[in-house]
Amino acid sequence: MQWYMLDQPEEVGLMAVKASIGLPESWAFTVGQPVSWTDEISFEAIPDSDGAGEDFLGNHLSLPIFSARLRALLAEAGVDQGIQYVPVRVFHSDGVELPGYAIANVPVVDALDLGRSRYTVYPDDYFLERRRGTIQMMLIPVLRPDRLSEYHVFRPKGFDVQIYCSERFREVVISNSLTGCEFHKVRQVGDPMP
Fold first, then answer.
1. 133: helix, coil or strand?
2. How do residues 68-98 score in pLDDT, each as one tens digit?
3. Which of 44, 22, 55 shows the shortest CA–CA distance to 88?
């Protein structure tokens, strides 16, 4: 099965740039563990970032926020295993709500082959101590497909800022003309390296 990095195109509709949670709170959604969130979470556009609500909604915290339509189609296709959905409220800049959105808290899987991947790490003197020595930028990821048989979407352990998805996930998005998604093919163990 082919794997892809799930991304957003440069030109998106609504980009939520204000939120009721900050960056430290958003990290709870990057560790792949179920969260118990009782406070309301909201996202809002400003006039310069307003537009149509995409199915994969852009936001300044880089959290995967899925529309109700995307979630329903993934469930129908059986490609939503391991995803916990946490409802959020999304607003246009004028305060009008776009209903049906949720953060997709996806599993974290130890599926990167770090020996074959190309990446940079944060220096030992980086100002955020918890980042020192961790992956800063993934130049060429290489996945271990033998560790992915149970998943269709995940964050890789060791570099939780990216989200990867299966060919089946991609097919659901493309065949249903869902918006806000862009896919970049990812190498796997056994693929030739440049």
1. coil
2. 999 999 999 999 999 999 999 999 999 999 9
3. 44
